[in-house]
């Protein structure tokens, strides 16, 4: 199908929940980080080596970068989700299955946005806790976040394979 029709694909309930949770978490990240900045010392740890030893220091104001990076990632995903006709699809895309492919693609982006926001919120929380000199939380979540994203792509990809 050379021409991809522009269809109105309404948001599902899970997409609405993801959007609300993402917005609340992003606002919370900014509020938490800004509040914490004023409790941090002027110089904070900004990097750890593989052994968990601090080997980089910087200004406390660098901690505001993480929420901004998240917004820079989130906004393009928001627009990408809105225009599923711009996504990449297999050759078997046809007039009969285009809606199912668009729905599947929008749900994939919704889950990825949700997972990115939660992962960044955790990383931000971890960064702030270390900057405040509190006990370092475990970094196992990095592996968990990566596995979650990979599993999401696999699961939704398998669902896409079932679309006729």
From TrEMBL:
<feature type="transmembrane region" description="Helical">
    <location>
        <begin position="107"/>
        <end position="127"/>
    </location>
</feature>
<keyword id="KW-0472">Membrane</keyword>
<protein>
    <recommendedName>
        <fullName>DUF1648 domain-containing protein</fullName>
    </recommendedName>
</protein>
<feature type="transmembrane region" description="Helical">
    <location>
        <begin position="139"/>
        <end position="158"/>
    </location>
</feature>
<feature type="transmembrane region" description="Helical">
    <location>
        <begin position="61"/>
        <end position="80"/>
    </location>
</feature>
<dbReference type="InterPro" id="IPR012867">
    <property type="entry name" value="DUF1648"/>
</dbReference>
<feature type="domain" description="DUF1648">
    <location>
        <begin position="24"/>
        <end position="70"/>
    </location>
</feature>
<keyword id="KW-0812">Transmembrane</keyword>
<feature type="transmembrane region" description="Helical">
    <location>
        <begin position="20"/>
        <end position="41"/>
    </location>
</feature>
<dbReference type="Pfam" id="PF07853">
    <property type="entry name" value="DUF1648"/>
</dbReference>
<keyword id="KW-1133">Transmembrane helix</keyword>
């Amino acid at each position: 199908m050379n021409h991809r029709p522009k269809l109105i694909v309404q948001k599902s309930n899970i997409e609405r929940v993801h959007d609300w949770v993402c917005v609340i978490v992003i606002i919370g990240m900014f509020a938490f980080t800004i509040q914490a900045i004023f409790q941090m010392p002027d110089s904070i740890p900004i990097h750890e080596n593989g052994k968990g030893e601090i080997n980089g220091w910087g200004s406390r104001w660098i901690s505001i970068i993480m929420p901004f990076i998240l917004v820079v990632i989130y906004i393009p995903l928001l627009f990408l989700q809105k225009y599923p006709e711009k996504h990449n699809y297999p050759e078997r895309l046809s007039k009969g299955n285009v809606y199912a492919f668009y729905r599947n693609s929008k749900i994939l982006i919704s889950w990825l946005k949700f997972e990115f926001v939660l992962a960044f919120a955790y990383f931000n929380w971890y960064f702030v806790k270390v900057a405040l000199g509190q006990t370092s939380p475990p970094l196992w979540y990095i592996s968990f976040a990566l596995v979650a994203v990979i599993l999401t792509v696999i699961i939704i990809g398998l669902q896409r394979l079932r679309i006729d």
